[in-house]
TrEMBL record:
Keyword Oxidoreductase: yes
Top class in the EC scheme: oxidoreductase
Organism of provenance: Pseudomonas umsongensis
Annotated keywords: Oxidoreductase, Peroxidase
Stated name of the protein: Glutathione peroxidase
Protein EC: 1.11.1.9
Amino acid sequence: MPMRWLAVPALLMFFSGLAQAAECPELLQGSLPKLRAKESIDLCQRFAGKPLVVVNTASFCGFAPQFKGLEALYQRYKDQGLEVIGVPSNDFRQEAKDGAETAKVCYVNYGVTFTMTEPQKVRGDDATHLFKVLAEQSSSPKWNFYKYVVDRQGNVIANFSSLTKPDNPEFIEAVEKALASKR
């Protein structure tokens, strides 16, 4: 078989990969390690086209009880497509030193079933790509449990401070707006 025929499948794979990348919003490009699992989460594959709530968390923060409210929100809206992504961070010096302790707080203490990642940087030049794009579209987290509501196209439509509880009417309104957004 001539060499040029071998190049055709490679080129097709290359261009289909570019097409997939073009469909993936900037916010979701890349992957993050799942909390206490041996797998990485391909953000685009897992969350593209879905409304999101992204929140930076910390196990030992006074706002940690918001895990319960975030889980209730997820349970209320998951059948409509809502995804919640919790990203633990020690940027504000209130996260456990190891993922096992973080997992215990999230999964055992608060019964979290939504997606949680291993601890990440969420502020500054070292922030994970997801949080760099969130900051570009709105602002960097000011503290733990800073919440971002993202529409199906990967655009931040609202962000909320740590003081805003997950059952806050304005927060719920933003989530419902994200759910109503068209793909």
